[in-house]
Amino acid sequence: MKVSLFITCVSDMIFADVGKHTVEILERVGCEVDFPAAQTCCGQPAYNSGYLQEAKQSMKQMMRSFKDSEYVVGPSGSCVGMLKEYPAIFKGDSEWEEAAVDLANKSYEITQFLVDVLGVTDLGSTFKGKVTYHPSCHMTRILGVKDAPQTLLRHVKGIELIELPVKEDCCGFGGTFAVKNPDISREMVKEKSQHVSETNAEYLAGGDMGCLMNIGGRMRREGKNVKVVHITEILNTHEQGGGIA
Amino acid sequence: MSIKLGDMSYQDRIEKGIENDFMREAVSSAQGRFRNGRLTQAEELGDWEDWRQLGSEIRTHTLENLDYYLQQLSEQVSKRGGNVFFAATAEEANAYIKKVIKQKNGKKVVKSKSMVTEEIGLNQQLEQMGAEVVESDLGEWILQLDEDPPSHIVTPALHKNKEQIRETFAEKRGYDQSDSPEELAAFAREQLRKDFLSADVGITGCNFAIAESGAITLVTNEGNARMVTALPDTQITVMGMERIVPTWEDMEVLVSLLTRAAVGQKLTSYVTSYTGARLEGEIDGPDDYHLVIVDNGRSKILGTEFQSALHCIRCAACINVCPVYRHVGGHAYNSIYPGPIGAVLTPLLDGYDDHKELPYASSLCAACTEACPVKIPLHEQLIRHRQIIVEQEKKSPVTEKIMMKGFAQWASTPAAYKLSTKLARTALKPWTKDETIKNGPGPLKGWTDVRDFPAPAKQSFRAWWKERKKGVNQ
């Protein structure tokens, strides 16, 4: 199966490893992977801030980049969730509507793709450690991916999964919200950090680097040494090496 | 009072809320109770999503035929001896109510369950004409004694706890007993009974007006609204023009959703319906009945992309799940409609000038949208507000505008984008120590004031990919 990577701007620039783990996981399950280099950002920072025209320029670039792809798979529930909104955004636009529908229909978040499209629930991963999982708001509520990440984690050999209290609560990231409303965002992430601490987990895993950057950044500021990892880092850890064994 | 509560700046309100540990603890524990109650009740009812869908369809149908149902309601109320007044503005509503009270030579007014009278600032108007006004819902009464505005739609005094309430009672009414809820409630009851018996006018709000019968329904847990509707000779109901359902069956669906979504109850202690004035041969009911139907900006929402905001049945489910509300409290919204629905509704009713920050006081986590029993897409409407603030109102900050123009340029030019992923690390080097940025420049400042920012990767993904293709990493 041919899969085009949607690496997301945050992952490309800051968390390049997340992209690498995504590639390796997809190849391990037999996908032929390519990376359309003209891709940029999904447009979410501008769209959620109210800059529709600016967001659309970015979105058009994404549609151009992936027009020939069969499947588009990315390591972020939030960014893939944004792609899924394109049809509503370009509705009635004779030039772009079709491309928007096409991109939305063929796009998947990585765990969603593995479980729902490929039917893979056990990647043969091995990971020793106490892990708690933060289900990001956009992954669960906008994209509607609730079970896939946790299904995959449950099949990891050696893992000890601990439930995060009030896990469905927002961590306070919210894209530009974190810098536009830093005081409120701080209080939200403080609470999330507290909940992570209550689990005594060694690792906090999630499917969105934005949220993880927020929670991890706060916990680091508070001097806590919980390791914050993208779910692919755990899923790509196996007996032959891979992720963060 | 009107929709707007005061003149404090947005930033000051946020800080004041965050610093109020007392309020935050009260709100947090109430949110936990309400949220769990809602989930338990939704599960017990079963098919919650089907109920929500039905609720949403009833609201959509009603709003799309609002003129028809308002006319039907008006005819039914008139037929039962009531007077109906359509008020286009707050001023018209207040003037009419004052006229009725003056004609009756009313001295004392007891009230219950009415947010819309807060919205139009009725109490001040009545006090100015020399009438005594007593809020009879326990929460509202506490706030009235304390001269404090409501902070929640369903439990207006949510931000106070029993110790504070005891202090208020002691200071304003000479209360000298404990802070046990039972004793506090007994004291309030004893005080309020005198008011119920001596009032000449009763004013209530309306949870649902039933078009087919002209009945007004109130959903309460205290029963005080029943005193207000049963005792004074003159009765006035004030309702927002959207608080209407076509039939009793529709009301049943919406009440089922309301009580579960609001406080996690199957049904509240009292669901009271009443119609018009006492007709000849009847033994109860008021001598004189008035229904005031208030527009005050609602009709201009009809037919717009915000129309579904008028679905709202004031259950506060969105408020009860909102993490922003939990940390800043209801007063931070500076509106009698706080929380996510307040952030949507307030600018629609009162314009953007005083409320342009509200649509941004959300992380767009969509917990509100998920909780809403009548399916208002709250987080989407917040984004739509932001678009209007940026594009039509032109009220967004200049620096942000420049940044977003830059973003569009960057994200639609692959070469520029590619270059930035290559240079990000170098550009941020002066602020980077141990792979971490603790005092970031420009837009990073808001971030690094409260948390660390990671240094960009040594090698961007696309650089790694390129090398891998060439076989460097194999």
From TrEMBL, chain A:
Q: Domain of life here?
A: Bacteria
Annotated membrane-spanning segments are none
Q: What is this protein called?
A: Lactate utilization protein A
Q: Which residues form the Cysteine-rich domain?
A: 3-84, 131-215
Query: Which Gene Ontology terms of cellular component type are present?
Result: cytosol
What is the protein's species of origin? Virgibacillus pantothenticus
| Entry's family note | Belongs to the LutA/YkgE family.
GO MF entry, a single one: oxidoreductase activity
| Reported function | Is involved in L-lactate degradation and allows cells to grow with lactate as the sole carbon source.
Q: Supply the InterPro entries for this chain.
A: Cys_rich_dom, LutA
Extract one GO BP annotation from the record: lactate metabolic process
UniProtKB/TrEMBL annotation, chain B:
Which Pfam families does the record match to this protein?
Fer4_8, LUD_dom, LutB_C
Alphabetical GO biological process terms: lactate metabolic process
Look up keyword Transport and say if it applies: yes
Q: Where is the LUD domain?
A: 70-294
Coiled coil, from the record = none
Where's the 4Fe-4S ferredoxin-type domain? 309-376
GO MF annotation, one? metal ion binding
Task: Give the matching Gene3D superfamilies.
Answer: Alpha-helical ferredoxin, NagB/RpiA/CoA transferase-like
The Lactate utilization protein B C-terminal domain sits at 384-470
Where, by residue number, does [4Fe-4S] cluster 1 bind?
Answer: C312, C315, C318, C372
| Highest rank taxon of the organism | Bacteria
The residues listed in the UniProt record as binding [4Fe-4S] cluster 2, with positions renumbered to this chain, are: C322, C365, C368
Role summary: Is involved in L-lactate degradation and allows cells to grow with lactate as the sole carbon source. Has probably a role as an electron transporter during oxidation of L-lactate.
Q: Which family does it belong to?
A: Belongs to the LutB/YkgF family.
Checking HAMAP family in the record gives:
LutB
What protein does this entry describe? Lactate utilization protein B
Task: Identify the taxonomic lineage of the organism of origin.
Answer: Bacteria, Bacillati, Bacillota, Bacilli, Bacillales
Q: Which gene encodes it?
A: lutB
